[in-house]
Amino acid sequence: MPPRCPYSLDSRLLLVVALCLLVQNRLTAQSSGSEGSVSSVDWPQFRGPGGQGISNARNIPVNWSSSSNAVWRTEIPGRGWSSPVLRRSRLYLATAVMPAQSGNPSLRALCVDAGNGKILWNTEVLVHTGSTSIHNKNSHASPTPVVEEERLYVHFGHQGTACLDLDGKVLWRNTTLKYSPVHGSGGSPILVDDALIFSCDGASDPFVVALNKKTGQLLWKTARTLAAKKKFSFSTPLLIHANGRSQVISPSSGAVYAYDPKDGRELWRVRYAEGYSVVPCPVFGRGLLFVSTAFDSPEVMAIRPDGQGDITDTHVVWTLAKGAPKTPSMLLVGDELYFVSDAGIASCVDAKTGRVHWAERVGGNYSASPLLADGRIYLQNEEGVGVVLAPGKTFHQLARNSLGERTLASYAVTDGALFIRTEAHLYRVGNLNK
Hints:
It contains one helix and 33 strands. The protein has one helix at 9-32, and strands at 70-75, 85-87, 90-97, 106-113, 119-127, 146-148, 151-155, 161-165, 170-174, 190-192, 195-200, 207-212, 218-223, 238-242, 245-252, 255-259, 266-271, 283-285, 288-292, 300-303, 309-310, 316-320, 331-333, 336-340, 345-350, 356-361, 371-373, 376-380, 385-389, 397-402, 412-414, 417-421, 425-429. A hairpin with a 7-residue loop joins β19 (288-292) and β20 (300-303). The chain has a single domain, classed as YVTN repeat-like/Quinoprotein amine dehydrogenase (Methylamine Dehydrogenase, Chain H, 7 Propeller). It is mainly beta. The strands form eight sheets. The chain has a five-stranded mixed beta sheet with strand order 14-15-16-17-21. A four-stranded antiparallel beta sheet has the order 1-33-32-31, with no helix packed on it.
């Protein structure tokens, strides 16, 4: 009789997941150029260090509620759907505070102590001007900040962009980039070397722009050249390294573009069906770029990012319409691509072929992007329910956790904790009940 294996099947599966996570984290760090530049317990931008929703954090809670495993809950003034970011045990987020009487919203940056939830400072960055009309799922403070070293970068779309030190002092503002938004602003900026890069896809003349992170001055501005009927979109760019070059991937109405981060030169594009209001951030791995394309009829596309010019007919590897997200970004774990539709259908597909392993209803409506941490996938629906899944080719739901408050923001994470922004509060949840 052969010797008995000392490990259970479950422990072996967890070991496999952990190894996949380690490899994926290294690939993510290499693709973003950020390996060694941030701590594994920091969460410095939208979707974390590599911009793809993957964290090295450990001891993350599986179960929580407003009364269980809630380490603290802090009321956040005003309203905003920017996701929190984290550096050195301090959280940063943006909000818009309506005046007590008539007037324009105050656009603000906040710093919160991650240990106890105390608001350390609350700085007015800009005062909103012009129309305050936005979509009912949007806010005047939806883009997520970026934090690095001793600086915080906050972005309020067409209202302007600013840099603060980590004590809350405004170092520079740029309010020169004017365009006509539709439904407000949504896409977040990213940092690439000395450039702060973001998209400005409004009602007309959409463009991508880079500001000097030290001064706020314009480095480059590149127009979107495809004549889409509806030009407005809200996607966050992603930096990748492929085909021996750095590329900033930026989805827009009608096409996804790749740009040279040094000068904004367009490297390639892939067209898709007349789409608009594109929100999901791309993900990259296994030599493929994954995007979700449009609002009315979204489609997931897998693209080889090694071409030049219009590569629509030559570099699209597979497409999948069923279950494609309009708002949440996707998640790549090993050889599987995970995504959740706005209507609450979660899917797992083979990243190389697009073959569907499973598609299951997880309940609720979704805007927040998924997270991989501690070997588990975390989803967050708009009704304030966090759904925890085990990654794998078979669907396995581990937990459902309700805070009882509406939320559209995505998670931030560190060792031992998730940070969840709801309509009125910021929560830290951890393993208090162990």
